[in-house]
Amino acid sequence: MSPRAPDETQRPGGRVVAITGACTYLGTELVRRLEEDRRYARVLLLDVREPPVLAEGATKARYFPIDLTQPTIDAEIATLLEREQVDTVVHGAFLAHPTHASEWAHELEDVGTMHVLNACAAARPARFVMISTTMAYGAHPSNPNFRDETAELRGHKDSRFINDKVRAEKQAFRFARENPATRVATLRMAPLLGPTVSNLFTRFFSRPAAPVMAGHDPLLQFVHESDAAWALKLAVDTDVDGPFNIVGKGVLPYTTVLALMGRVPVPMPYLVARQVSKALWATQVFSSPPSLLDYLLYVCVADGSRARRELGFTARFSIKRTILDFLGVQPEDGATDVARAQG
Amino acid sequence: MSQPPPPDDPGDPIEPADRDWPTVDGAPDASAAPEAVWHDDDIYLGGEASISTSASGDGAAADDDRARGDRWFSSLDETSDPDAPMREMERRVETGRTPVYPLDVRRRIPLEFVWKRWRALAMRGRSDVVDDFGRDPIATARWEWVIDFLYSRWFRVEAQGVEHVPAHGPALLVANHAGSLPYDSAMVMHAVRKDHPARRDVRPLVEDAVFHLPWLGPLMSRIGGVRACPENAERLIAKGEVVAVFPEGVKGMGKLYRDRYRLQRFGRGGFVKLALRTGAPSSRWRWSARRRRCRSWPG
């Protein structure tokens, strides 16, 4: 199956895209790419605050304040989609970092996805693209080295951060089954790493030291931020459907990643690390829940061959290049951050 | 040029030539221009650029650094001489060196040096490129002598029929377990790597119970072991690798000494399905305890 554009590309005015979570890294990058593409006429930015990308002289983009945690927001979105004749909805309003406000996160990710999908069921856009993560496969001892898209999304039994994304993706799957008129694609991104993106992993690897589960060294996988943005643009351009793993080239063991980054590994037994992490999470000292320690125990790596075959996406950055690119602006002495402040 | 660095100034580990800016004869270099011009120009040097790194913190060293930095940047100033940038570029090409921004040099050198040393130290004995299943060529070479010692000195392995392993393409090796510790997969690997003319790398499938053992699991993964599951096996066969399976599993490792020649039940027949599905040629290996009669591991 070769990628082909939806019928809306032939529309004389050009396509109209609505992006939820336009302030996220991928939303911002997608707006920048759509601004340069003549096939797209208008871009609707739905977010709770005005995306900074509007200040860059955006001509097609327009901001609509939409809060997905509001209970009646689905009707508002549906009205908006119908009034603006939106044919492509990109749903990217997901948290890049776990939060202690887990009820709010649940409202935003799980219930918010339900609102967006309800609006899509009413407005019937031709294309729906959702952003997910390969962490939804879960880190389990029974994982094979590579999970492909047919694998079950097992999530993590304790992690609301992961399970909200799993539930959102299951909703999107159900929506695709019930609304065959809308082509639904889900992009499961490997952990994003790069000089400008900010998420769970960039924060984790920005610290001078990192915990290592003693005796365990799983393989890690990243995708460069510009590769991820390119994959998202490809998914918006084409109408391939189903889930896609968007992964970078190659894998590396966790300790090798730390060594390449020059971080100090702090080995500790898993049980100790879990208790310490629990205590620090409960006292809100750490912003990462203890359940994410499982990703340092067991492998959770996805296979990106379906995206290569059907989406035409091949990562340009190897994992080592991604790490070095990420390090390029890292404060090596931990004191100054000149490059990031300037950029 | 004009003044040697103060004696208590610690050496600059990254850019040792930082102390001495070279000049080209005949060029209207900064050192030939009057002093007042450099202090009046508005090129930003950074306040921290003049902070002396000397422990005593004497003002003379700081002034010297500032004067040196001013002179350096004024040589790029286009108002003083229109040809200066071009000459400056020529000079850089001649000296083969790109100067570093003084602010960054002053701020980052000591810790950058430590960081780079730490990184080099941490990357010792590991490669920055591993294959899909985590096999690390440097780590493999590092543990080679241990396996070789076990192979040729301790167990005195005699491998027969290694030539049946195809030189190209996928293959499936099926073997029994002999012994309570999973040495035999490493011995199969070593036998094929050592005695087979094609020097093929065997990828043994490792049972979960062993693969998730602390320290042993990552080590096996680095030297080529793969967690035993159908997805991994099919992926390896599809890549054209030689896969070794031990269908007895942990039961084979746990059997009693008197049962050493008796095969245990073969799991769920996953290797048969694998061979039928992928069409990989398979060969059977037999480990016999008599091969290890000289010295045998306890148990």
How would you portray this structure in words?
The complex is a heterodimer of chains A (343) and B (299). Chain A is an alpha/beta fold and 343 residues long. Chain A has a domain at 12-190 and 224-246 and 305-315: 3-Layer(aba) Sandwich (Rossmann fold), CATH 3.40.50. Helix content of chain A is 37%, strand content 17%. In chain A, strand 5, helix 4 and strand 6 (183-189) form a beta-alpha-beta unit. In chain A, helix 1 packs across helix 6 (225-237), helix 2 (73-83) packs parallel to helix 3 and helix 3 (102-123) runs parallel beside helix 4 (160-178). Chain B starts with 34 loop residues before the first helix and ends in a 14-residue tail after the last strand. With 299 residues, chain B is α/β, with parallel strands linked by helices. In chain B, 40% of the residues lie in helices and 7% in strands. In chain B, strands 3-2-4-1-5 form a five-stranded parallel sheet, with helices on both faces. The relative contact order of chain B is 0.11. In chain B, helix 5 packs across helix 6 and helix 9 packs parallel to helix 11 (270-278). At the A-B interface, strand 12 and helix 7 of A face helix 4, helix 8, strand 3 and helix 9 of B.
Specify Rg of chain A, calculated over alpha carbons. Answer: 20 Å
Shape of chain B: elongated
- Note poorly predicted spans of chain B: 5-62, 65-78, 96-107, 288-299
Main β-sheet of chain B: number of strands, strand sense, barrel status?
5 strands, parallel
Instruction: Please tally the helical runs of chain B, counting DSSP H or I stretches of 4 or more residues.
Output: 11
Oligomer: heterodimer
Instruction: Please give the count of helices of chain A.
Output: 11
Instruction: Compute the number of structural domains of chain B.
Output: 2
Broad CATH class of the domain at 12-190 and 224-246 and 305-315 in chain A: Alpha Beta
